[in-house]
Amino acid sequence: MSSSFGTLFRVSTFGESHGVGVGAVVDGCPAGISLDEADIQLQLDRRRPGQSDLTTPRDEADRVTILSGVENGQTLGTPIGLLVHNKDQRPGDYGEMSRVPRPSHADYTYQLKYGARASSGGGRSSARETIGRVAAGAIAEKILREQWGVEIVAWVDAIGTQQAGAIDAERLTRQQVDGNLVRCPDQAAAEQMTALVREVRDSKDSIGGVVCCVCRKLPVGWGEPVFDKLEAVLAHAMLSLPATKGFEIGSGFAGTRMRGSEHNDLFVAKGERLGTLTNHAGGTLGGISSGENLLFRIAFKPVATIGLPQQTCDFSGRPVELAAKGRHDPCVVPRAVPIVETMAALVLLDLALRQQARSA
Predict the structure, then answer these.
(1) Domain containing 29: what range?
(2) Which of 22, 113, 206, 288 is most buried by its number of CB atoms within 10 A?
(3) Is the whole model's pTM more than 0.85, yes or no?
(4) Cα–Cα distances in angstroms (integers) from residue 314 to residues 34, 91, 98, 317, in the given order
């Protein structure tokens, strides 16, 4: 099982959703970075369950402890251990699922691949695994912001059929994104999304959506062609997240309906560098950051575990009716926003360090 990500800034996550705890080990963090738990906690607070009536009622504070790699508020250059204890486990909610694989969940494939699996909550396939990613990514964000001025902001672009209007990604702030429960900066669309999620929740069902992310102030040159192109590593990172089903950058699939004459981003002088009039490319050229905003979108499917009775079968093939008893989000998209941001930070810092090593 691959539980590590990155080349120079490398992160390994550990833990199961209903085990003692979850976390990460960060290897390759430069020494001399100012760091404490508060730098990490803000993004964990945005990710944690129980934030509102739109999320799972699982009650977890998700307080992070730095176990190693930091002394007197400064990183040592040695591995940084990060731990979050699980407090509100209810493995008893998953008793029936020990013999019945949940439809569209990883129960079936984990069991067939390994011959064993975590007995409750999905184990490593649970979204609770992302705590380690978020904690490590918060460190990466801090370094990117302080050393390169990089800004990363994600937001909810759609939930079900409810779509946000045009968003000014150049000026959007996280404070604006967090201005409502669904983290959509279009307030009118946010109200419709909120009503939809509540309707789905009350019917014991689930629904998916789309998260957009912009990364601003990237210098030109990040990305390692041909196999580690910036957009390729981003796609790898985003599609490794639970419940993801699609990734597109820049114009994405909409660009297939355009002609080259309208899709091409024409160069213009922007201060001391070249820039482009448009950004259909989404901030990369040939897999290398171009200096324009990096803009991408991720599709999240409806949560697989729902409370509605479903006609399925157990591992032996016998028909059975399954109605999940666990506590689950009716829509993961609002809580996915900080996860997307921090995974983007892991990608960007790793590529930044690789570029830095090239010119050292």
Answers:
(1) 4-359
(2) 22
(3) yes
(4) 52, 19, 9, 5
